[in-house]
Amino acid sequence: MSVVDRQEWDVVVVGAGGAGLRAAIEARERGARTAVICKSLFGKAHTVMAEGGIAAAMGNVNSGDNWQVHFRDTMRGGKFLNQWRMAELHAQEAPQRVWELETWGALFDRTKDGRISQRNFGGHEYPRLAHVGDRTGLELIRTLQQKIVALQQEDFRETGDYESRLKVFQECTVTRVLKDGEKASGVFGYERETGRFFVLEAPAVVIATGGIGKSFKVTSNSWEYTGDGHALALLAGAPLLNMEFVQFHPTGMVWPPSVKGILVTESVRGDGGVLRNSEGKRFMFDYVPDVFKEKYAQSEDEADRWYDDPDHNRRPPELLPRDEVARAINAEVKAGRGSPHGGVFLDVSTRMPAEVIKRRLPSMYHQFKELADVDITAEPMEVGPTCHYVMGGIAVDSDSAAARGVPGLFAAGEVAGGMHGSNRLGGNSLSDLLVFGRRAGWHAAEYASGTGAGRPRVDDAQVDTAAAEALRPFSAEGGEQADGPPENPYTLHQELQQTMNDLVGIIRREHEMEQALQKLAELRARARRAGVEGHRQFNPGWHLALDLRNMLLVSECVARAALERTESRGGHTREDHATMDRAWRNVNLLCALTDPTGGLAATDAVRGQITLTRETTEPVRPDLLALFEKDELVKYLAEEELYE
Ligand code: FAD
After folding, report:
1. Ligand 1: which of 47, 235, 269, 360 to mutate, judged by most atoms within 8 Å of the beta carbon?
2. Engineering a disulfide at 532: which of 132, 184, 301, 541 sits with its beta carbon 3.0 to 4.6 angstroms away?
3. pLDDT at 599
4. Can you tell me which atom of ligand 1 is nearest the CA of 427?
5. Does pLDDT of 602 surpass 50?
6. Is 14 in the pocket of ligand 1 (CB under 6 A)?
7. Where is each Fumarate reductase/succinate dehydrogenase flavoprotein-like C-terminal domain found (predicted)?
8. Which atom of ligand 1 is nearest to the CA of 47?
9. 199, β-bridge pairs
10. Nearest CA to ligand 1 atom 40
11. Ligand 1 proximity of 38 Cβ (cutoff 6 Å)
12. Burial of 311 (0-12, 13-18, 19+ CB in 10 A)
């Protein structure tokens, strides 16, 4: 039996990005002893990379904005597949969460009259994104971290111990959620630096691990995004919702190859940047779909007037939702009108004075100067689609963020499904993290205090199994696994990324996804033999070998769901089913992991089967439907929904 350090907490939060930190603050403020675990250094979560801003209908720049308009935009962006109650709570509560951040010390950019400034973004009817230059995520995390430190100081004054009620375990990776019967009972993980194992026992576990982008070759996501939380939930017996919906951001860098995929923020377009093809044509006017025709400008003149007079002009088509822009760029490149390195041109240099570009987009200026030797104040950028965000995720209850099927398990942030439907609007993630992070922390604390003396117990046998699973890569040639030579985890990862990029990428075809599923099955078998050398002290090969389990499970969910959904909607585009089909509007796809004998939650992840079920969505509440014109609803709703 391996040596495993054990501690007891009330709430364990896995992930210290915006969602995890907000959940931890809430749980601690509601009296729960709370532990936060993160893979990277504290403060270095993916949220730090968020550039554009936080969407919240505060109406600071256009008083026409309110939660109802934000709700409408979010549902339109998600093509009405959003879990509507989440979209409602999100639109209603986002402004309070931004103001709250300000009271905790966040310094937002200001309007001339001193209010929090808000900028335009794709799919948002009004300027809505509260921002700090193009470094909003950094300020968000800095503020939440500062709040955590303030709470720890408060605890020190009372108990003499900074970490008595709120403790951060950094550079630690969780590999399993532990269970007592059906209920969550804690987590198992390892310290990345020492390789030592630990168990945190707790009746409530909040998963806030972010996204899955590292399964794709071209991505804006950082090394942390290996779909761990999605896989942890699957392995614990909780289903994943609508995993086919992966967002390809239209503008990632395409050159040089070493930085391909790095994000070029949408603020560039929100602030006036335009997209052109190799012929110099502003091509987005050719790609406005019927459902959006009335809301977008038909000429360059009108589009340009909108920046100064949004009340009397329609928005530029560069600000269509991301899925539309990404597909348009893809089509231009395919038609041979791309830029020299396989993207299109994004130009701010002819649209704004150099000093304004440097002030409003400082990170973009430095990013291009340092990584591509391009001066964006003097020449256009070359950009193309990059895997950016996953709309699919752990199926949760809208109000409490409780994961379906596993009492005591909660999920918030990018890892949770439902909120964004088939496509997320830019800026709606940072607000989602705050709104549902808080809700997850609140309900986790309540759940934990409700367990009283009946706290779930950690089963030693599960701990031993988790330890054996984690150690498997060190003995890849031994025993049962000796059905082939040991495999290099880096090679497997590269093959996985190539497969997902080529066969389950931005435009999908039935035969390619079938091919992908065959390849994923082969990779899963080979991953069983992923072997590493050396020892457990900071060993990145070992870490990757463990992450592979998660990436492979999650990739299979994406591919299976994408094959099943025979329509194009939001982030899911099928060449062989090119249009949105109203019959699919109210269909959710749920992925679960079953063991080979049919039981739920395989103990052996590599042998478990991903199964897919369909479920009808809950009808949208009539007062929320009444916020839309009937003509618009006809474009989205299923026949029977319209009839009702
Ligand atoms: P994260 O911030 O990624 O945090 C995940 C945490 O989980 C990390 O602490 C990680 O270490 C930890 N973790 C993961 N796996 C494990 C494990 N197994 N064990 C322990 N810990 C684990 N959205 C907007 O709304 N506005 C924007 O302007 C914007 N800009 C963006 C720019 C870029 C370049 C990118 C990539 C994304 C952007 N997004 C933006 C999206 C947004 O940043 C993310 O969706 C959001 O930050 C996710 O936050 P999170 O709290 O869910 O996860």
Report:
1. 47
2. 541
3. 47
4. 25
5. no
6. yes
7. 493-590
8. 47
9. 6, 188
10. 50
11. yes
12. exposed
What are the tokens at 120? 């335009």
State pTM to two decimals.
0.93
Name the residue with the closest Cα to ligand 1, atom 53: 210
Out of 30, 322, 327, 582, the active site residue is 322
Containing 35, the helix (H) or strand (E) segment is: strand 34-37
Q: What tokens does 352 get?
A: 């704004």
* Catalytic status, residue 424: no
| pLDDT tens digits, one per residue of 394-415 | 999 999 999 999 999 999 999 9
Where in the sequence of the chain do the CATH 3.90.700.10 domains occur? Answer: 253-388
Q: Which of 429, 433, 547 to mutate to test the pocket of ligand 1 (most atoms within 8 A of CB)?
A: 429
Fold exhibited by the domain 5-246+389-457: FAD/NAD(P)-binding domain (3.50.50)
Domain with CATH 1.20.58.100 in the chain: 486-616
Q: What is the DSSP letter of 335?
A: T
Tell me the fold of 486-616.
Methane Monooxygenase Hydroxylase; Chain G, domain 1 (1.20.58)
Q: Where exactly does CATH 3.50.50.60 map onto the chain?
A: 5-246+389-457
Beta strands in 181-230 (DSSP E): 183-191, 197-201, 204-207
Q: Largest alpha-carbon pair distance within the chain?
A: 72
| CATH dotted code for 253-388 | 3.90.700.10
